[in-house]
């Protein structure tokens, strides 16, 4: 019945011709409409007449909402919307009745909540958490972190439980493991991240192993620091600049480290609970602890603030420095204005590769990283492009999905690219050359993993002939001078080669 109601509502919208500008302008029933609970950054609300207006405060959302740089949390008491929907940067939603219709971007659902996902009804009846990722036609997914969600696909209703993801295009349900919590806060500091003080139950977790945290212990990438009931832990950076106090029932993950020596940068991510962030001193204080969420990128001096895993920040005073990569107030440094929208474009790979290589375009002061097979690397800027250096050790052969992310001034952009690593040369067999007068008949078989065309090159003396072949081939070539050896080479798209010499 729920699926029928959802599709009936959509049919009524189309019949009334209310789909304007890509957002469903359904007239909201009486009662409380969707409303922005809090807003950080830039956002616009769609009003009557299909007019977008800048949002501020906690405006109602009768027809649609889109977020530029920042994020917004939407709640409502009408219909079944008793939970909330968090929108990431570059995300938008419309309204069907009094329920959000998620259209493009990244969303976090805190249940109980009912929404539409590009017109498909999704319901979380009980408290829980799920993410919805909609990026063009590449990523269309509902993934459940806690609880369960029922999604009305055409002709059937699918229940997605915690640890599962639903591909909206195929309807397939597969295991899901959170590896990109965009909604979580991140801290970056210089030097090593060390445990400076603890109280109660505090443990360091790496994979399936867990041990008590010792004072002075360094958190290495891949490790998590977790606190129990009534416990806390303080984490500082050896490069100075402040410390974090991880509250009880909280978890802090070391997700990356770059560089070496005093300038080494370590990034920590708050994946559960909350933490106090304290940066003592004035403008001359050494170091500088960076807090990065999808909407906040700040180096606070003489400040204390509390941040939770959902990214909500509460300042307790202090004076905020300019975000990383931007000039300080009054500075005339020649950087890109902070108001300029972050862009990220990937150059498609030419085909299979012997070694992983990536090329991207973004704003010159952005930080661009790539994550593949659990490894995260920073791309190097070369002119207006960012390029990936050689991975050591290299990736094994296979197909990989690479996540490329750009960050700048609180903005974030993510793209995905599939690459194939191939180091296996094509097979060349049953090669035979028969001369008849001035014609040479060359036959054989060339295969590249059972599929795909390869480039065949025959060299005899000063003559070279090139053809595209696949499987069994028979070529007629001008015959070289008698007694001239013939080398036949086959090369696949990745540049792997095999050859054979014929007398």
Polypeptide structure, described:
- With 503 residues, the protein is mostly beta strands.
- It has 4 domains: 174 residues, Jelly Rolls (Sandwich), CATH 2.60.120.1440; 136 residues, no CATH class; 78 residues, Immunoglobulins (Immunoglobulin-like), CATH 2.60.40; 76 residues, Immunoglobulin-like (Sandwich).
- The chain is 3% helix and 55% strand.
- The chain contains 1 helix and 47 strands.
- The strands form 8 sheets. The chain has a 15-stranded mixed sheet that branches. The protein has a 9-stranded antiparallel sheet with strand order 21-20-22-25-26-18-28-29-32, with no helix packed on it. Strands 19-23-24-27-30-31 form a 6-stranded antiparallel sheet, with no helix packed on it.
- Strand 10 and strand 11 form a beta hairpin.
- The protein is globular, with a radius of gyration of 28 Å.
- The N terminus is likely disordered.
Give a short overview:
The chain is mainly β and 503 residues long.
Draw up the topology in text.
Layout: H1 2-16, E1 19-20, E2 23-24, E3 34-47, E4 51-54, E5 60-61, E6 64-75, E7 84-87, E8 91-96, E9 99-110, E10 113-117, E11 120-124, E12 129-135, E13 139-146, E14 148-153, E15 156-161, E16 164-167, E17 173-175, E18 185-190, E19 193-199, E20 202-206, E21 209-212, E22 224-227, E23 232-237, E24 243-246, E25 251-258, E26 265-272, E27 274-279, E28 290-292, E29 297-301, E30 303-308, E31 313-315, E32 319-320, E33 344-346, E34 359-362, E35 367-372, E36 375-378, E37 380-382, E38 385-387, E39 398-408, E40 411-421, E41 427-436, E42 439-447, E43 454-460, E44 463-469, E45 471-478, E46 486-491, E47 497-502
Parallel strand pairs: 9-10
Antiparallel strand pairs: 1-2, 3-4, 3-5, 3-6, 6-7, 6-8, 7-9, 8-9, 9-12, 10-11, 11-14, 12-13, 13-16, 14-15, 16-17, 18-26, 18-28, 19-23, 20-21, 20-22, 22-25, 23-24, 24-27, 25-26, 27-30, 28-29, 29-32, 30-31, 33-34, 34-38, 35-36, 35-39, 37-38, 39-40, 41-42, 42-45, 43-44, 43-46, 46-47
Protein name: FecR protein domain-containing protein
Region (Disordered): 316-336
Biased composition (Low complexity): 316-334
